[in-house]
Amino acid sequence: MPTFFFDRWLSPSEWEQAVRITVTDGRIVDAIPNATRESGDEHHAIALPGLPNLHSHAFQRGMAGLAEHAEGSVDSFWTWREAMYRFVDRLTPDDLHAIAAMAQVEMLEGGFTRVGEFHYLHHAPDGTPYADPAAMAVALAAAAGETGIGLTLLPVYYAQSGFGGAAPTHGQRRFVYGLDGFARLLDASISAVSPLPDAVVGVAPHSLRAVTPTDLATLPTLTTGPVHIHVAEQMKEVDDCIAWSGARPVEWLLDHADVDPRWCLVHATHMTEIETERAARTGAVAGLCPITEANLGDGIFPAVEWQAAGGRFGIGSDSNMLIDATEELRLLDYGQRLTRRVRNPLAGRGSSGARLYRDALAGGTQALAAPGDAADFMTLDPNHPALVGRDGDALLDALVFAAGRGAIDGVWRRGRQVVAGGRHVSRDRIAERYRVTLSRLLA
């Protein structure tokens, strides 16, 4: 029964001093402030809960930087997608394991302690199902078991290539399922993650353009877990949805689905004021991925309006172009500053860093159905130059805006240390396997 003593600890509501924490079976069973340090306690100066990464496509870590050459006179999300299809063509389950483990190592080192894996790479390279329909999910679970990260697996349902039932393209052949096959995939996915402590399985209709209205109504009934969907990421998607239905994507979704706090609306970049207010009232979480959204030229989420409407949000690493929890928060905030030409637009009357961190923690925990008492936390280096002389919320301001992941010294998952001195305990071995895998794939 490990015990920890933190000089300063960020609880869900406030900073607490001299906190003694007891962990049993990976969960925090006691957190006593103003306590006395006892013999055998592991001591650290500053500790805070790890952040949930609510949206990841792990395999895309292997193509980071490979699509930064313009394809023709106008490069876009849609040309990037073709590059992604070319990369995904060659991946085996072993390849996915190697790439996902490397991504998860970087997530843990960067402050993420649980990942929501929006998993749509299901079939063999020729599009035929594996003998085990969850072979790729088994690879993701094996990576999580190796790295120690918490896993919320979100098997993706993908049935068409565009609004109105357009047939899937050749590049989508590894993603496509019908409802009966997908139900079997869900069962197999539950088995795949069963060896992992506190793993969760939800469901993910890929997007309104990739599922039929009938299937969208059925999918949430197949699980009691979270429901995630891409929506309104690109203006072309908005225009195509209007051409198909006469409504914008978020508008259509709210009119035709029972969106509630189980749901995570990933990106939701392009919303009107009315859509923003309606979506916020459902209690759904907005899944924001500012690094990827910037890289793909998606646009900037209306975070100030969402916040004013009482909306909840979490952050994700999405394409895993760059994996850094603090950078996601910083870019989210800076996007609002740049478009509005003001400072601290999301702070309310307090600290920007604290508001961003606490809101992303609460929203991500909800979106991933993560256990709230898991002993998932990180410690900060009190001697980092950006943290010197700071206390309370000023520590979070310094972490998000001045220090970044370089201030993260240690990370624990379920009370077990997985990052020490800023490095994952298995980084060298996992990184070497990743190098061998990528060298072969990109030869």
TrEMBL record:
One of its GO terms (molecular function) is formimidoylglutamate deiminase activity. Residues 46-418 form the Amidohydrolase-related domain. Its EC number is 3.5.3.13. InterPro entries: Amidohydro-rel (IPR006680), HutF (IPR010252), Metal-dep_hydrolase_composite (IPR011059), Metal_Hydrolase (IPR032466), Metallo-dep_hydrolases (IPR051607). Keywords: Hydrolase, Metal-binding, Zinc. Its cofactor is Zn(2+). PANTHER family: AMIDOHYDROLASE-RELATED DOMAIN-CONTAINING PROTEIN (PTHR11271:SF48), GUANINE DEAMINASE (PTHR11271). This is Formimidoylglutamate deiminase. It comes from Sphingomonas floccifaciens.
